[in-house]
Design brief:
The protein has 168 residues and is mainly β. Helices cover 14% and strands 39% of the residues. The chain is globular and about 35 Å long.
Length: 168
C-alpha cells in the first residue's frame, strides 16, 4: 500500500536522513503500517544506537540470548499499535519525540494508557502485554529488541495480537 500522507512521507524522510547522518545503516524501512511504521538498524550498530538513544546504556548488559535488534518506531497521532505480546523477545523503548501513550499489563486486560515524555524509558518483559499509542502529535521511539531464544530469534511474526484496531 503506497504512503499517500505527505506529512508522514516527510517525517519518514527526515528520520531516515537523521539516522544516516548519525552513521546508522538502515536494514529495513516500513512506512506502510496503518499506525505509522519503523526503521530497523544494522544489528552490528547496537552499541552505537544505545549510545545515541539510550544514554550510553551498555548493550552487553541487555543481551539475553546474545542478539539485539535496534529499531526506530514512528507512531501517528491518535493511532494505536495492537495490544500485543511476544514469545521470543523483551523490549526497551526510549521516547525520542513525544509525548506518546503506553499501556502495559501482565494479563490480556489492557491497563491505563500512561503518557511518556521525551527521554523517558520503559522496559517490557517477554510476554508482557503492551501497546504504543500516538497522542496529539507524531511520536518517535528508539527500541531495542532483546532476543530471548538464541536458536529462534524474534521477528515481525513474533507478535501475539490480543486486540487490534486494524483487524490483523
Amino acid at each position: 500500500m503506497p504512503n499517500t500522507d505527505p506529512q508522514k512521507s516527510a517525517l519518514f524522510q527526515k528520520v531516515a536522513e537523521t539516522l544516516k547522518q548519525q552513521g546508522f545503516t538502515i536494514d529495513k524501512e516500513d512506512p506502510t503500517r496503518p499506525w505509522g511504521g519503523f526503521f530497523v538498524i544494522d544489528e552490528a550498530q547496537a552499541q552505537e544506537f544505545a549510545n545515541t538513544y539510550f544514554g550510553g546504556l551498555l548493550v552487553d548488559s541487555l543481551r539475553i540470548s546474545g542478539r539485539l535488534s535496534p529499531k526506530i518506531l514512528v507512531v501517528a497521532p491518535h493511532q494505536r499499535l495492537s495490544w500485543q505480546y511476544h514469545h521470543r523477545r523483551a523490549e526497551i523503548w526510549q521516547v525520542v519525540q513525544g509525548p506518546v501513550g503506553v499501556a502495559t499489563s501482565e494479563t490480556d486486560e489492557q491497563g491505563e494508557v500512561k503518557s511518556l515524555q521525551v527521554g523517558e524509558r520503559i522496559i517490557l518483559r517477554q510476554g508482557e502485554r503492551h501497546r504504543l499509542v500516538g497522542l496529539k502529535d507524531w511520536g518517535i521511539l528508539a527500541e531495542i529488541w532483546q532476543h530471548t531464544d538464541a536458536d529462534n530469534p524474534s521477528d515481525e511474526d513474533d507478535i501475539v495480537r490480543v486486540q487490534d484496531d486494524f483487524g490483523r
